[in-house]
Known about the structure:
CATH architecture of the largest domain: 3-Layer(aba) Sandwich
Mean pLDDT: 93
Structural class: alpha/beta
Order of helices and strands: EEHHHHEHEHEHEHEH
CATH class of the largest domain: Alpha Beta
Strand content: 5-15%
Low-confidence stretches: none
Largest sheet: 5 strands, parallel
Amino acid sequence: MLKKVIIFDMDGTLVDSSRVLSNAINHVREQLHxxxxxxxxxxxxxxxxxxxxxxxxxxxxxxxxxxxxWFSGYYSANHHKELLLYDGIKxxxxxxxxxxxxxxxxxxxxxxxxxxxxxxxDIHNCFDAVVCFDDVEEGKPSPKMLERIVELLxxxxxxxxxxxxxERDQMAASRxxxxxxxxxxxxxxxxxxxxSVENLKEILxxxxx
Length: 209
């Protein structure tokens, strides 16, 4: 079916933010006088929909304003040296724009951190919409981010496809009624997933034929 908008998750899909995410979470834990968590343990829990992230990472019933302040403070000070685009992503985005797709991001990152990341990596201007954790009532796996993007772009669910790297993304797409593509070059490993950016490009270009 013809698609008009390609929606991407950010961390683990477009951006290798494993180092800065892990370090920022441990920075918040340090402010809370909690011991640091293992890097791989943090990454394994980020996309686990069975984990309550506020409770697991910060021993809190919900995220607090100081959590965001401490996290964003570390992120702002260190993203320029701890973030990378996955190989081929910038070229993929340029090719999709050349083929007249609208592009969007649905990320559970805070807006300040997300926009700083996209600007630093020189891809912010590729996107027609960016919806973040603090832009909606509930983050993924809720469908609210995807619904907001489709609304902002005056499109419908059938014209969109969502690309992510975890079960939270997959559940959000299912609840929104949007076609989903799982990739497996980021924080998670999956069966029946796309394992290369080049392969993903071939799939997405198929939507214009």
